[in-house]
Amino acid sequence: MPPVSASARPPSRPSAPGIPEGTRDVLPPEWAQREALRARLAATFSAWGYRGVEVPALEYASAAHPQDALAFKLIDSGGQVLALRSEFTTAVGRLARTRFPAGPFPLRLQYAGRLWLRALTSELGRLREFNQSGVELIGVESAHADAELLHLADAALRDVGVDARLELGFPGFVDAVLEDAGLHGHAREELHHAIDRKSGADVDVLARRDGLSAGVTATLHALTELYGGPEVLDEAAALAQGARARAAVTHLREVAVHFGRPLLFDLGVSRRYDYYTGVTFRAYSPGLNQPVLGGGRYALEGGLPGAGFAIGLERLARAAAAALPPEPEVVLALDLAGAQTARAAGLHAELAWTDDRAALDAYSRERGITRWIAGHTWQEVGA
């Protein structure tokens, strides 16, 4: 699935001096927050049976890769063109095919790590280097499997204190309706983009240019408005003339039943219809205009079915900030015994590097440390 991430600062702010545009320094408070989120997500994924894997940051460049046009590329000493990892699904899919060729399926895997893209896109918060955690459910294709991922996505976000709404799409539904309307080639491709943008004005321009009937134009407009609760599936069913479109609506109904909780549906989602083979979903948190999570169903090379989702850690850090507990108090230990006592009590202890009390006092005040410990004896800074 496409990367999902965002900067933890306003996207218009330039990079710090001395580092490339689209990259950023991460300072200790944010680093600690992000690592806590990563650990919580990993624990949740593990509890659901998703085992961890790690894939190389360097890959062989390939025109067939879904992010090939946006990948950073380099040439190794043997002349081979390599690329920095730009999304995880392809890499984890390769691992599944080569390391688990016979399963056992379903294969449940989780990952976490850094991604790189050459382009600065608003969807990624203007970052070209960012972090993701995610899961892949490989080797099965059913409404039960899709619902499992929705349940896991919801559980993972709740476990880090984020109450997000889940939105389901099915890019192939739009394509099927366009096909049933007799639209093909470049015209169909352009309408995909117009519908995905929910641009009625662009739909009208394209319809007039291609001489589409009033009935077909009305159908196209209806596609842009297919957003809401369960009633959207009824509206979609009314537009579904062919077998592909009807099957998409039926599958979404089955997924909704297996999930058993309220969902939002956006059946005008049409972007990357050539990549996703079934359900897609996103999770939105209040206050953020970009999803904290995104995923969907796809087919790996060789036809092996897969589905999964990725969580952008930078964006999640913004959404979860209020829910994370404060860091433990930091104290200054004047000896090793004091450090051991403090750490046994769940505190963070820095070790004094000098006997100069004036220097230690000045450092403690600047660092925000209010207590010292020697052995088992505590004292307030400056006392």
TrEMBL record:
Biased composition (Low complexity): 1-10
Region (Disordered): 1-26
Location(s), subcellular: Cytoplasm
Keyword Cytoplasm: yes
CDD domains: HisRS-like_core
Source taxon at top rank: Bacteria
UniProt keyword annotations, A-Z: Amino-acid biosynthesis, Cytoplasm, Glycosyltransferase, Histidine biosynthesis, Transferase
Predominant subcellular localization, coarse grouping: cytoplasm
GO MF: glycosyltransferase activity
Domain (Aminoacyl-transfer RNA synthetases class-II family profile): residue spans on this chain: 36-286
SUPFAM superfamilies to which the protein is assigned, alphabetical: Class II aaRS and biotin synthetases
InterPro entries given in the database record: aa-tRNA-synth_II, aa-tRNA-synth_II/BPL/LPL, HisRS-like_core, HisRS/HisZ, HisZ
Pathway: Amino-acid biosynthesis; L-histidine biosynthesis; L-histidine from 5-phospho-alpha-D-ribose 1-diphosphate: step 1/9
Annotated family: Belongs to the class-II aminoacyl-tRNA synthetase family. HisZ subfamily.
Remarks, miscellaneous: This function is generally fulfilled by the C-terminal part of HisG, which is missing in some bacteria such as this one.
Function: Required for the first step of histidine biosynthesis. May allow the feedback regulation of ATP phosphoribosyltransferase activity by histidine.
Subunit-structure text: Heteromultimer composed of HisG and HisZ subunits.
Protein name per its UniProtKB record: ATP phosphoribosyltransferase regulatory subunit
Gene designation per UniProt: hisZ
